[in-house]
Design brief:
cell membrane; alpha/beta; binds adenosine-5'-triphosphate; binds iron/sulfur cluster; ABC_transporter-like_ATP-bd; binds magnesium ion; eight-stranded mixed sheet
Length: 345
C-alpha cells in the first residue's frame, strides 16, 4: 500500500490542532524473530501515519503483533529481532539509531506506559523518588526543581493527595493510582508521543474509563499524540480518532473510528465488534472473537490469514492474500469479500 495515500486520509481527518506534517510515519514495518531453528514473522508489513494531537488505537487479538510493532519503534526488542522498513519520527529514522542515540529519544520524545505498573515500578522505592529520577534523567534540574516538577506531574495526572502519595511505596497505592504514577513518569520529559500498551487492561471498568479520560485530556492539553494498544475494540470506539485492526502481524482494516464502526468491512473486525455486546464479559477477558486460532506465525499461509476462521470465506480466499488497499476514502481493508453496510451475520 502507499503511505502517501494513508497520509492524505489521515491529514484530511486530522483535527484542527494537528499539524500538517505527520509526527510519526511507519512504512512497511516488518519484524522477524530468529533462533532455535525457528523464524517467527511477528509483524508483516505495517504502515500508518500519526499526527500530533491524535489518538490511534491498534487493536487485535493476543499475538497479533501490537506490542512488537510498537517496541520496535522504541528500540526495545531483543537482539534476535530482525527489523526492516521505516519509522520516521519528525522525519528522523528511528530504526537506524544506535542504542545510545535511542536512549536520548526514549522517554524524551517517545514514552511508553505498560500494562503492568506492578512490574514497571520499583517496589522498593517511594513513588516520588521514581518520578524525580525520571525528571532528572532528561534534564539538569536540581533536586528542588525536580521535586516541584514531580509534584506538578502528580497533579497533572490527578493523583489524589499527591503530597502524601509522593512518600509512599507502590504497594500502598491502588492499581489506578499506580497507573497514574506510570503516566506521570512517562510524561516527565514532555514527550510528543505516548504509547500506552494495554495501559488500562489490568484495571476495573470504572478506573479504566477514568484513565482513558485522563489520557484524552492530557493529549488535548499537551498536544501530544497517543498510540493506544488494546484488544478491546469498545475502548477504541470510545476514545480513539483512528483505528488499525491487526491480524497475524498485518493491518487488516484502518479508518477513522467513526467510519470504521459505522461501515465495518473486514469480517474479522465485525467479529471483534460482535463480541462486544454479545459477551457479558469480564471487563478484561481476552476476546474469544471467533472460533479457531490465529495462524502459526512461523508458517503463514499463502492466502488470507483469517480464512480458516472466516464465515465469509470463499474458495479464492486461500489462494492469495488480499492486499491492504484504500477501497473507500480514508478506509482501508484487506479482504476479497468485504461485509456490506447493514448486513447481519
Ligand atoms: N522475543 C520474542 N521472540 C520470539 N517471538 C516473539 C518475541 N516477542 C514476541 N514474539 C512473538 O511475536 C508475536 C507478536 O507478539 P506481540 O507481543 O506483539 O503480540 P500482541 O499483539 O502484543 O499480543 P498481546 O495482546 O498478548 O499483548 C507473538 O507470536 C509472540 O509470540
Ligand atoms: S479475504 Fe476471504 S477469508 Fe479473508 S477475511 Fe475476506 S472473506 Fe474472509
Ligand atoms: Mg502486547
Amino acid at each position: 500500500m502507499s503511505i502517501e495515500e494513508i497520509s492524505d486520509a489521515a491529514t484530511a481527518a486530522a483535527p484542527a490542532y494537528g499539524g500538517a506534517e505527520p509526527l510519526l510515519e511507519v512504512e512497511d514495518l516488518r519484524v522477524r524473530f530468529t533462533g532455535r531453528g525457528r523464524r517467527v514473522n511477528a509483524v508483516n508489513g505495517l504502515s500508518y501515519r500519526l499526527h500530533e494531537g491524535r489518538m490511534l488505537a491498534i487493536i487485535g487479538e493476543s499475538g497479533s503483533g501490537k506490542s512488537v510493532s510498537s517496541r520496535a519503534l522504541m528500540g526495545l526488542l531483543p537482539p534476535t529481532a530482525r527489523i526492516s522498513g521505516s519509522a520516521r519520527f519528525r522525519g528522523m529514522e528511528l530504526l537506524n539509531l544506535s542504542e545510545r542515540e535511542m536512549r536520548r529519544h526514549r522517554g524524551a520524545d517517545i514514552a511508553m506506559v505498560f500494562q503492568d505498573p506492578a512490574r514497571s515500578l520499583n517496589p522498593t522505592m517511594r513513588v516520588g523518588v521514581q518520578i524525580t529520577e525520571a525528571v532528572r534523567a532528561h534534564s539538569d534540574m536540581d533536586k528542588r526543581a525536580a521535586y516541584e516538577r514531580a509534584m506538578e506531574l502528580l497533579q497533572l495526572v490527578r493523583l489524589p493527595a499527591p503530597q502524601r502519595r509522593f512518600h509512599e511505596y507502590p504497594h500502598q497505592l491502588s492499581g489506578g493510582m499506580r497507573q497514574r504514577v506510570m503516566i506521570a513518569i512517562a510524561l516527565a520529559a514532555d514527550p510528543r508521543l505516548l504509547i500506552a500498551d494495554e495501559a488500562t487492561t489490568a484495571l476495573d471498568v470504572t478506573t479504566q474509563a477514568q484513565i482513558m479520560e485522563l489520557l484524552l485530556e492530557l493529549q488535548e492539553r499537551l498536544g501530544m499524540a497517543i498510540i493506544m494498544i488494546s484488544h478491546d475494540l469498545g475502548l477504541a470506539a470510545s476514545y480513539a480518532h483512528d483505528v488499525i485492526v491487526m491480524y497475524a502481524g498485518r493491518a487488516v482494516e484502518y479508518a477513522p473510528a467513526t467510519t470504521l464502526f459505522s461501515h465495518v468491512r473486514m469480517p474479522y473486525t465485525k467479529a471483534l465488534l460482535g463480541a462486544i455486546p454479545r459477551l457479558e464479559r469480564q471487563p478484561h477477558a481476552l476476546l474469544p472473537v471467533t472460533p479457531g486460532q490465529p495462524p502459526d506465525l512461523t508458517a503463514l499461509p499463502p492466502g488470507c490469514p483469517f480464512e480458516p476462521r472466516c464465515s465469509r470465506a470463499q474458495q479464492d480466499c486461500g489462494q492469495e492474500a488480499p492486499a491492504f488497499t484504500e477501497h473507500e476514502p480514508g478506509h482501508w481493508w484487506a479482504c476479497w469479500h468485504p461485509c456490506e453496510d447493514g448486513e447481519t451475520e
